[in-house]
Structures are given as C-alpha cells and as structure tokens.
Design brief:
3-stranded antiparallel β-sheet; 283 residues; binds glutamic acid
C-alpha cells in the first residue's frame, strides 16, 4: 500500500511570522495538498525563555489569513514534555547520554585555550570535559542537584548504529550524512527539558511525517536527525530543503534583518494572494 504524504510546518513562537516562514509553510502545505496527503501544524514551544503564547496565537491567525488549513489539532510541544523525557531516558539507559555541568563561559574558555578547536554547524564542538568525569564525581554532582545539560556521546552513538547514514532529498537523491560534525550535541539543556533536535525527530516520527519540508539552513541538522532516528528505531522521512527567500539586495530574509512580518503586510493592505506571491508561491 502506498503511504500518503504527510508534511508539517513547525514554527517556534518566538516572534511574528515573516515572508520566509510563509514560503516554508506554503511549501509543506502545497506538497501535501498536491499529493492528496495531510499537512500538520506543530508549535515548537519548548524554550520557555523565548516562546510567548501571544506569538503562538498570532501564528495560527496569520496562517489562516494566508489561506492555509491544517489537518488535526495543532501539536504544542510544551504539552508533551513527558514524551521527550521518555525518549531521553531510552538513550540514557543505553549509555548514550551523559550529564554536562559546564557553563557556556567555561566551554568558551576551554575552546579558546585549545590550539585547534573544531567547529560544527552549531558552533565550536564541545571539548568533552564532562564525558571524561570520574563516575563518582559525576554521581556526587548529580546527587547534589547541580544543574546540567544532557549530551549525546557521539562516538558511542555512532558505534550503536549500522553503517554510514544518509537521507533522501526529494528530487535529488541520497545524501550522505556526517553527524560527527556536531560533536557531543546537547539533547536537553539546563534551561529547557529537551533540545530542538530531540523534539523534532520524536514528533516527526510520532506524527507520521513522511516528507520534511524546511529551509536549507536546517540542512546540516538533518545529519544529526538521521542519527537520532536510527538510534531510536524511528522511521526515516524524506526531506525537501527549500531555498531561503532573499530581499532585493540578496540578503536572506530574517527577523533580525527586518524581514516584513505577515501582519505588517496585511495591515498595509496586501491581500493573502499578494502575500503568497511575495512568499514565492503565486497562485
Ligand atoms: N522550529 C524550527 C524553526 O522554527 C523548525 C523545525 C523544522 O522545520 O525542522 O526553525
């Protein structure tokens, strides 16, 4: 039996949607609707410091205004923290995670002091300080309730999955993955119960997403996502990483570069059809 296409749009409610988000949402929505499949909406709101309920409401409203509809209820990650905890516990039981007590400043000092600090897609690679902690010292610090993140032991994780990993880029073909370039990635932060990488792979599997449509800025993250899927025995979706919209000077649209919010365009009298065209998806 052929499986129907399931896509999703998964914004983080840290601000108002801009044209770049509209492009991404329309990419997923169109792919699902053209295939007679399902389009899901997920709010990635696990970071309590950056996410705001008013932005979540604004996202739903702006998407409706833009003419998008989605199937089933909106999944809000903040309502499912127990599921992410369970997913982390499964990795922990296999010895694939370790607690990291380092502060950002301590890591930065260590990186600065080292002659060849390798960099990955998320910044300088963690030097592995807490991986090498003496087990008694580690247990004592945990018993004292010292705040800690959870990191993936990359070497052990790679040893726990068969063969080289790859993924299917729609219309392009198999792409090789190199998750090691993330080093010992953080899967739960001190201030957030689970990382983007953990939650996104968990939810794509749980929600039966078959095609992940998202910007090419997240292309490197797919290498780590394939590793997490392989470790957890989760199904492998296909990926369609789309180009990022640029402004007239060729600069990538982003909130920090003043990309126009959908709301501002709407208030300026643009119609949904005009905004869909501005977002690269004319009707
Ligand atoms: N929540 C992520 C973001 O807003 C997108 C996640 C994804 O599409 O994989 O950048």
């Amino acid at each position: 039996m052929l499986h129907a296409t399931v896509t999703r749009f998964a914004p983080s409610p840290t601000g108002l949607l801009h044209l770049g988000h509209a492009h991404s949402a329309l990419s997923g929505w169109r792919a699902a609707r053209e295939a007679g499949g399902r389009f899901l909406l997920r709010l990635e709101d696990i970071d309590p410091g950056r996410c705001r309920p008013e932005f979540a409401e604004a996202i739903l409203d702006d998407l409706h205004w833009l003419g998008l509809d989605w199937d089933g209820p909106v999944r809000r990650q903040s309502a499912h923290l127990g599921e992410y905890r369970d997913a982390l516990a499964a990795l922990e039981r296999r010895g694939l995670l370790y607690p990291c007590f380092c502060t950002r400043a301590a890591i930065a000092r260590e990186v600065a002091a080292s002659a060849h600090a390798p960099h990955g897609p998320d910044g300088p690679l963690y030097p592995g300080t807490c991986r090498r902690l003496d087990p008694d010292a580690r247990a004592a610090r945990l018993a004292r309730g010292e705040p800690h993140a959870l990191r993936l032991d990359m070497a052990r994780a790679l040893a726990a999955v068969p063969g080289p990993l790859s993924f299917d880029e729609a219309g392009v073909g198999r792409q090789a993955c190199d998750p090691a370039r993330f080093g010992d990635a953080v899967l739960a932060r001190k201030d957030a119960p689970a990382s983007y990488h953990l939650c996104v792979t968990h939810d794509d599997a749980l929600q039966g997403v078959t095609l992940v449509t998202r910007g090419e800025d997240l292309r490197p993250a797919t290498d780590l996502h394939r590793l997490l899927q392989a470790l957890q025995g989760w199904p492998e979706p296909a990926y369609a990483h789309h180009r990022l919209l640029a402004d007239s000077s060729g600069r990538r649209l982003a909130k920090r570069h003043g990309a126009p919010a959908l709301r501002a365009l709407r208030e300026a009298g643009r119609s949904p059809a005009e905004v869909r065209a501005l977002a690269g998806w004319p009707d």
